[in-house]
Amino acid sequence: MELTARQLAEVLHGTVEGDAQAKVTTFAKIEHGKPGQLCFFANPKYEKYVYTSRASVLLVNRDFQPKAPVTPTLIRVDDAYAALADLLKYMSELKKQYHRRRSLRSRIAWSAKLGSKVNVGDFVTIGKDCRIGDCTVIHDNVTIGAGTKIGSHCIIYPGVHIFPGMVIGDRVILHAGCIIGDDGFGNAPQPDGSWRKIEHVGNVIIGNDVEVGSNTTIDRAPMESTIIADGVRIDNLCQIAHNVVVGKNTVMAAQTGIAGSTKIGEGCIIAGQVGIVGHITLADHTTVAAQAGVIGNVRKPGQTIFGTPAIQHKTFLKAYAKFKQSGEE
């Protein structure tokens, strides 16, 4: 799609400085900018590329003052980074063409009810009594179990498996290969040393505006629900065990594992390869550093914790300094 600098400025509520008819068809990093591309400048570390970029259009903050001649047409906005996010969303919405499609190679139960403009790809299975909202896109090789409810404007990518009885809100994105609602790891030890499987009859409830990464698994509860609240972002290859509650707007990076019945507060940031034991609570706005192992409650909101077992950031740095010193003696 081709857009002029003037059109871009109108979309982003910015002002044009240079050729208002400069045209762009794609995006690039500022260090790679070429004619026909749009780049953005928000981090001072990259200022040197402003003066060498050959991009046609460059998004900059309103208060940016060049120290040398600039070739691209500038579009000045309040926040260049936020404006880029808005522009990418705008372009994505333009490309979406919602229309009704039912692949002849899909299998949809007669009792399932699909809203308007639902797109169903090849080899999709939709079980009995499912409810799918308007404008949801279901890609190839997806399985949706009986009685599942999915909201409107969702995107379900290839190979996703949703078990029976799940509840998924509006504008949810489930990336390829993720699994929603398989049995949790529940086993009871027996006197003879064997293990007895605990049946799981609960479900998973996913709120609105949630994104779940590829090959992530969210287990159903033995009773009641595993809950992923509104606005949560979960990366690839994460494990969310049964009865976990993840609070609103929490983000979780790849290879994180959360054991059963743990409650994660709102607005938490959980970095990659974090392990969190079961039956504990993390307060709102907790930040957990990469590869941390959390083995106890975090009761005070807004803390940053490091290490295994995870402790407060300042305490960890002091302990690490002493650890390094002891190795040098």
How would you characterize the overall build of this protein?
This protein has 329 residues and is α/β, with parallel strands linked by helices. A twelve-stranded mixed β-sheet has the order 8-11-14-17-20-25-28-31-34-37-39-40. Strands 9-12-15-18-21-26-29-32-35-38 form a ten-stranded parallel β-sheet, with no helix packed on it.
Helix content: 10-25%
Describe the strand arrangement of the main beta sheet, using strand numbers: 8-11-14-17-20-25-28-31-34-37-39-40
Number of domains: 2
Indicate the low-confidence ranges by residue numbers: none
Task: Tell me the overall shape.
Answer: flat
Query: Sheet with the most strands?
Result: 12 strands, mixed
CATH class of the largest domain: Mainly Beta
> What does the radius of gyration come to?
24 Å
Structural class: alpha/beta
- What is the strand tally? 40
Question: What is the CATH architecture descriptor of the largest domain?
Answer: 3 Solenoid
Mean pLDDT: 94
Ends distance: 64 Å
CATH homologous superfamily (4th level) name of the largest domain:
Hexapeptide repeat proteins
Secondary structure tally, helices = 4
What is the fold named in CATH at topology level of the largest domain?
UDP N-Acetylglucosamine Acyltransferase, domain 1
